[in-house]
Amino acid sequence: MVQRRASDLHGGLGVGVGVSGGRCIGSRRPDREGDGEERLRRAGKRREAPSSETVGERRREGEEDAVGVGVIRYGIVGVGMMGREHVLNLHHLREEGALVTCVADPHPDSLALALQLHRSLLHHNNNSSPPPQAFSGHRELLDSGLCDVVVISSPNMTHFEILMDVIHHPRPHHILVEKPLCTTIEDCRKVIEAAKKRPEILVQVGLEYRYMPPVAKLIEVVQSGTLGQVKMVAIREHRFPFLVKVNNWNRFNVNSGGTLVEKCCHFFDLMRLFAAANPVRVMASGAIDVNHKDEVYDGKVPDIIDNAFVIVEFDNGSRGMLDLCMFAEGSKNEQEISVVGDIGKGEAFVPESIVRVGSRKEGRAGVVTIKAEDKRIKYDGLHHGSSYLEHLNFLSAIKARGSGAPSVSLIDGLYSVAMGVAGQLSIEKGRFVTIEEVLTG
């Protein structure tokens, strides 16, 4: 058995996930959190971004606003692998007015990597703008007045405290919070209630799989009525194990919320979106069969499951099924999604980025294959351009100054967590678990 201490492995604060009921949208595997140079080399030379001095001048003219005109200043809380991914995506949105002005992380190595990445991006683009201001904590970042938008990409168990601090801060900040919204339903509810009292703040949850081009195309097909009334949604994710995170926080359910919350909230969100209905009850079977069984951190053995089958029943009679395996590196596609209606069927494949659509009437001979792409994407990143489109969408909502709304709401975030919590409880209890049970319990 491999004995490891929490301090032995270095990475960064990582992973991650508005108040609106939107119904919106290939990948190499990073080996550790410290990577990013390959992505950096792929970054094209683009127009110079505005300097933070210019931003500061603009802010003095309207300090009460959550966003000014032209440049929108971003602060990133948690600059591990996913936090640095946000730095890269926002760098490619600088012509849209996005500018990272500050970062916060209690982990010195993560801060150093984020600042190094930023310097490399500026050098690559012959840009002389100053680096972001670095802070060891999110409260110092909020008090600095340096940002209009806060991206929360810290470990799951920290989301609640940071969200509440941002929402309650005297100065309004728009929020993009990585998935899951929180690790417990109780905390999700508290965030929703707090956000209701700050209507001037936009909050979007980072369920960006909606924006992957093949998934977005399948959403479009389903919502066009081509498949008829959706009856079944099947999602398969066969992938690699969880990556190493700072202090190995993602090896334990108490920190992550459990695999079905941490990883699978994406798929529960998509099921609910495709079904156009809310979940009623969940049945799951899962276990730790292969991964992390020989690992010990500070005397504790990881308890996160590495495979599961989950069945979800919805209030309109449709059903969803998740097939998760996290020791399936030998897969052509990481995600395969099937949506079957009463008159047709649609499928999406990631990272192959194709969609297949057929009808019962025309049968196999009538199946059409579509190559899914979105020409707006300037940076593919770790999630096939979905994080870029997520930011582009949220940026548009911010610029709309209240006339637009984020496409992924806090309610969407709550349900995606509730379905995961129900699945985890079902595995533990060996029975169906109702959504009412977990929402009211």
UniProtKB/TrEMBL annotation:
InterPro entries: Gfo-Idh-MocA_inositol_DH, Gfo/Idh/MocA-like_OxRdtase_C, Gfo/Idh/MocA-like_OxRdtase_N, NAD(P)-bd_dom_sf. Residues 24-62 are annotated as: Disordered. Residues 220-434 form the Gfo/Idh/MocA-like oxidoreductase C-terminal domain. GO terms for molecular function: nucleotide binding. Residues 28-62 have a biased composition (Basic and acidic residues). Residues 72-206 form the Gfo/Idh/MocA-like oxidoreductase N-terminal domain. SUPFAM superfamilies: Glyceraldehyde-3-phosphate dehydrogenase-like, C-terminal domain (SSF55347), NAD(P)-binding Rossmann-fold domains (SSF51735). It comes from the Eukaryota. PANTHER family: INOSITOL 2-DEHYDROGENASE, PTHR43593. This is Uncharacterized protein LOC109728509. The gene is LOC109728509.
